[in-house]
Fold:
Amino acid sequence: MKNFTTVLKIAPAFLLATTVMHAQKKDSLPQEKKIEEVVLIGYGKQKKTDLTGSISSVSSKDFNGGAATADQLIVGKTPGVQITGNSGAPGAGSTIRVRGGSSFINNDPLIVIDGVPIDFNSLSGATNPLSLINPNDIETFDILKDASSAAIYGNRASNGVILITTKKGTAGKFKVNFNTNFSVSTKMNNVDVLNGDQFRQFVNTFGTSLQKSYLGTSNTNWQDLIYQQAWGTDNNVSFSGGVKGLPYRVSLGYNEQNGIVRTNDFKRTSLGLNFSPKFFDNHLTVNGNFKGTFTENRFPDKGAIGAATYFDPTQPVYSGNSNYGGYYEWLDPQNHATGLNVNGTRNPLGLLYGKRDLSSVFRVIPSLQLDYKFHFLPDLRLNVTGSYDYAKSDGSVNVSKDYAQGIGSLGSYRSYSQEIKSKLFESYLNYVKKIEAINTNVDVIAGYSYQDTHSITPEAPTYYGNQKTDFSTPGDTQRTLVSFYARGIFTIANRYVINGSIRRDGSSTFWNGTDRNNLWGNFPAVSVAWKINEESFLKNISSINSLKIRAGWGKTGQQETGNFYPAFGSYSYSNSSTAQYQLGNSFYTLLRPDVYNPNLVWETTTTKNLGLDFEILNSRISGSIDYFDKKSENLIAKVPTWAGDLNNFNIKNVGIISNRGFEANLNIIPIKSQNLTWDVNFNATKFNPKVTSLSQYVDSAYKIPAGSISGINNYIQAITVGQPLNAFYVYQQVYDANGKPLDGAYIDRNGDGKITEDDKYFYKSPTPDIILGFSTKVKFKNWEIGTALRAVLGNYVYNNSASNSSIANIQANNFLSNTNSSVLNTQFATTQLFSDMFIEDASFLRMDNLTVGYNAGELIGKGTNLRINAMAQNVFVITKYKGVDPEVFGGIDNGFYQRPKVYSVGFNFQF
Structure:
C-alpha cells in the first residue's frame, strides 16, 4: 500500500514529463519561425537571451482577467514580486514589494510608464496612483529586480523598477475593439464576534445588574448591515490603424464600481492617445502619448467597519424617533448638550449615512519622444523625451448635524485641493554596431535627465456649525533631480555578454544650504552572462534551446524621506487651531523652526545576483533560478534625538538591513496541438530581510517601535539589530495543564521575579518563509479556461480583534461593547494586547482568478470576432488564520476593508 501511494504521488509528474518529451520529438503543430523575445531594460531594449540582469516580463496575453487596477494584472505572475491589496475598496490598489523590504521608510518600486518615471507622491483624494491608469491600455510589464539591471535609474531604484508599456497602434486596416464587463462583488466573511444571543448570555454571566439592564432584545448582525452586494461595469473601446504612414491608437474607458461597504463608490473615465509616425526615410521616429484620467470617489466613514464589529448586537438599528438620523445610539442623560454617551460606540449605519466624503482627481500625462537615426552614421541614434505630468485633486467632507458624529459641533464642512506638476526632460545618444573584426556587438548609451516635481496644497479649513473653525497648514514644495548616466553592453561571439552602467544623481532632497557633497551620488553596476548553449560542446544538442548563466553586482539608491526638505533649516506655521500666541485679546499664528538633519544622505543598496536561465525540449520547458544578496546602508528612519533639539525625533541615517533569498520560475507546455494547448507556470520566492546595525546614533539594543495597535501609543512590532524587519515584540503567554491561557500570566524571561517590558521577546514576523505562485491555461478549440493561485507560507499576523476582547468590554462607561468570540475561551478580565497567543499563523492558499472564455468567431459578420468571458476573483482562501483574511500587509489585522469576491461576465467585440 505504501508503494502504491508513492506511485500516486509521482505519477502526475511522470506523465507530464513523458508528454513533453514525446512532444519535443514531434509537435502536431507546424513548426513556426520563432520570434526573438525582446525585453525593456531601461533606456533601451535587449533580446531576452542576451539579458545579464534579473528581469521578469509579463505581457497582456498572460494578464489576470477582470482587473480593475493595473497592479491586479500581474498578481502571482512573477517570482520576487509580492502584491498585497491595500483594501477591498474599489480603486484602492495594492502595495508592491520587489524581493521584500529593505528600508525603514519606503519600499515602493519606481514605476516608469512609456519611458516616463511617474511621481507617486501622495495626492489628496486619490485612493491609489495606479488606479489612475486604465489597465486595458497596458501591453507589458518589465520588472527590473536586481541592481545590475535597475542601477541605470540610480537613487530611485533600490526597491526595483517596474516598466509599463502601453498599447500602440500599428499601420494597416482600421480596427475597433470594444470590451464590456459586468460584475457583482460580495464580502468574504465577518469578524467572529458574539451574536445577539451569545452576547446576552455573556453579559448575564459576567456583567453587573446595571450592565444587564442595558441589554436589548434584538439580534442585529451589524456587519451584514454595512456590507452590500456591489455592482460594477467596465467599458473600453479602442480605435487603431494607420493613416498615410501615421500609426495611431485612441482608447476610451469608463469604469464604475460600487464598494461592498455601503456609501462607497468609484468611477474612472480615461482617454489614451498614441501616434508613432516615421519621417526622413524612417530615420526619425516620433512617439506621441497622451494619457488622461478623471476619477470620482465617495469614501465610506473609516470608523464604520470597527463600529460594526463592536456595536452591541442586542440593540435595534433604529431608535423609533428622528433623533440622530433615526438610528439607535448610546445615550447619557447627564449630557444636556447632545444627549449622547461620548464614549459609546457609534451606530455604524449612522456613521456611513451621516458623512459625505467626496473627491475627484484629474490627471494628464502628455509625452513626446523623438528618436533620430543619423543619416551620416546610422549606427548612432539621438533620443529625446519630454513629458508633463499634471494632477489636480478636489474634495469635500461634509458631516451632517443631524447624525451623532456631527451633532455636537452642529455639523462640519471641509473642502480641499492639491496640484502636483512634474516636468521631465530626457536625452541620450545610443550607438549600436557589430564590429566584425572582433565578432562583437556593441550597444552604448550616454544620457542626461532632468525631472522637477512641484506640489501645491492650499489651506483647507474645517468649518463647524457652532462657528468654530480649524485651519490646516498650506504646503508648497518642490523637488528636483538631475542625472547623468551611461551604459555599455558588449556581446562577444554571441556567447559572452558584458553589461556595465553608471548613473550620477543630484537630488534637492539632501540640500542643506551649504554643502553640495550630499547632493550627489554615484550608482555603478556590472553584470555578465555566458550563453552556454552557443558553445560547441552544446550547440548541436537539439533538446537544449537555451542555457545561460548570469552574475551581477550593483548599487542603487533611495531618496524618499517622508519630507521634501529634511536636511535644510526652515520654518513653518504653527497649527492655528492648537498653537497660537496670545497678545491681549488676540491670538497669533507663529512661525517656528522645523527639525532638520544637515548630514542626511540617501540610502544605498548593494546587490549581488547569480542566475540561471534555460529552455529545453523545443522550448516546451523554460525557466530561471536566481539567488540574491542585498545590503542596504544609511537607512533613513525617524529616531529619538538629544534633549534641546527642535523636536523629540529627527530623520537620520541609522541602520543596515541585509536581505538574502532566491526565486525560481518554471514554464511548461505539456500539450501543444492543433486543437489543444496547455500552459503551466510555477514560481517561488524566498527572502529574509534582517536588521544588522542601527549605527552610532542609537544604542545597539535600541528598538524602533512599529506596528500601531489598539489604544494610545501601543506598538506590537519593533525594529532592532539581529531580528527580522518588523518582528513582533510580545510577552510569552502561560497556559494551564488543559491548554487554557491564564489571564495576565506571562513567563518571566529575565528571571527577576516580576513581569516588565524587559520580559518581552521577539516572536515571528509578517515576512513569509516562501511565496509560491501557480497559473495554468488550457485552450481547446474555441474554449479557454485559466486560473491563478498563490500560496504564502510561514507569515504571521497579529489578530487585533481577538486581542482587544475581554470581559472589560462590557464594563465600559455606561454602554456595552461586543467582543470577539475568542473571549468565551480565554475569559480574560482585561485586554491582554501583548500576549503572543494573538500572533497567528496566517499561511494561506488563495485562488486569485478563474476564467472561462469562448471565442465565438465571426458570429456578427465577416472580419469580426466575438469573445465571451466569465470570471471569478478571490475565489477561495484556505488558511488556519481565525480572522477574515490572512493576507494583511504589515501583519496587523485591526479591522480593514476586506477584499471582495468578484464574479463577472465580459464581452469583447473586434471589428
Notes: Residues 184 and 285 are 44 Å apart (CA to CA). The chain is about 10% helix and 50% strand. The chain has a mean pLDDT of 90. Residues 2-25 form the longest helix (24 residues).
